[in-house]
Amino acid sequence: MKKIIYTLLLLNSFFLTKAQKSNTYTKSVNNWHKARIADLKTPNGWLNLEGLFWLHKGTNTLGKKEGSDCRYDNAVFPAVLGSFIYEGDSVLWMNSTNNAIKVNGVLVNGTKPVKVFSKEEQAITMSWSHFIWTIIKREDKIGVRFRNLKAKTLVNFKGIERFPIDANWRVKASMVAPSQNLLMITNILGQTTATKAAGKLIFTIHNKEYSLDVIDEGEPKFFIVFADETAGKTTYGAGRFIELTKPDALGNTEIDFNNAYNPPCAFTEFATCPLPPPQNRLKLAITAGEKNYGNH
Length: 296
Known about the structure:
Blueprint: H1 2-40, E1 49-54, E2 58-63, E3 70-71, E4 82-87, E5 90-95, E6 101-103, E7 106-108, E8 114-117, E9 125-128, E10 131-138, E11 141-148, H2 152-155, E12 170-176, E13 182-186, E14 192-205, E15 208-216, E16 221-226, E17 240-245, E18 252-256
Parallel strand pairs: 2-3
Antiparallel strand pairs: 1-11, 2-4, 4-5, 5-8, 6-7, 6-9, 9-10, 10-11, 12-14, 12-18, 13-14, 14-15, 15-16, 16-17
C-alpha cells in the first residue's frame, strides 16, 4: 500500500512539475509578445508611419500644398513647412518663412540651411507639432521616413492575432558554417544587399529535416527572414521574422516559432522590408507566432 501511495505521489509531482513548466513557458512567450506590442506603439515603432518620400537631387519641398515634392496631405499641416536640399551625400533642411522645426529637440529658427543627414550624421530626428521624421538611406536612394504620433493606425490599433502557443514549435537546432560569408537579401524595393551570413540552422520537424540561413546582426542575437506555407493565407504573404540566441560552443540553439513576428510592411506601406531568400521558404506550414495584420 505504501509503495502504491509513493508511486502516486511521484506521478502527481511529475505532472505538477510538467504543468508548471508549461505555464512558465506560456507566460514567457506572452511577456515577449507584450514587449513587442509596446515597442510597436513607441514613437519609433511601425504603427505611426504616414509617409515615405524619396528625395531627388536639389530642393524638395515638404507640405500639404499640391505639387509639393514631399506632399503630406493633412489638414493641420502647413502648406509648405520647409525644404530638404539633397546635395552630394548630404541633406540640409531649410525652414519656410513662417515655420520652424526642431532638430534633435532643439528649435531651429530662421531660414539658414541646417545639415540633417550625412555619412557622419545619420541619427537626426526632426519634428513639428506631433509629427516627426528622419532621413533614411537604402542603397543609392535617400528618403524621408515620416511619422504622425496621432496616426489613426496607432490610435485604432487593437493588437495582433496569434496562433495558440504550442511548445512543440520550440525546436532544437544546430548551426553549421555558412557556405559563403555573405547572404544576398532583397527588399521590397527590389534592391539586393550582401548581408553578413552567420551560418545555416539545421532542425527537424515531424521527422523531416529543414534548414534556414541566418543573418548575423551582431550581439547578442541572430536574425532570420523566412516564409512558410501559411504565407499569404493566415500569415503575412512576404514572410515573417524571428530572432534567436546565438548557438553555444557546439553549435546548439533553439528556434522558437511561437516568437515569429510580422515585418514592418505588414503594418504600413511606408516601410522597406527584407524578403526571405529562396532557401528560407519552407515547404511546411508553421502554425505558430503572429498571424497576418490588416491588408498590407
